[in-house]
């Protein structure tokens, strides 16, 4: 598990290799990840957008931006947490992801970024 705290918001990430799949006559490696967002600040916050940089050892970096996470924009009061699961397909057994969530502070109405630490995606059979 990797973790990082930005402005009182703790992000924790767990990853898992899910298997190989054929798509468009090419093999792909499926990975899942579980992200937990914990509010250790004194203010209520809401996640509004996400930004991902996905690195595949055989391809260029892919950028993914969007609203919320898995269709939700969770509001977290102090002490609360939100956990969700998602995944990605890579064309190689090795890769990584990193990014940030844009959050809104309900007390100040200002937005700020909460950074997601770089997390590795690796198929266990491909490791030495």
From TrEMBL:
UniProt-listed InterPro entries: ApaG_domain (IPR007474), ApaG_sf (IPR036767)
Domain ApaG span(s) in chain numbering: 3-128
Source domain of life: Bacteria
Coiled-coil ranges per UniProt: none
Database matches in PROSITE patterns: APAG (PS51087)
SUPFAM superfamilies linked: ApaG-like
Protein name: Co2+/Mg2+ efflux protein ApaG
Protein's organism: Flavobacterium aureirubrum
Chain's gene name: apaG
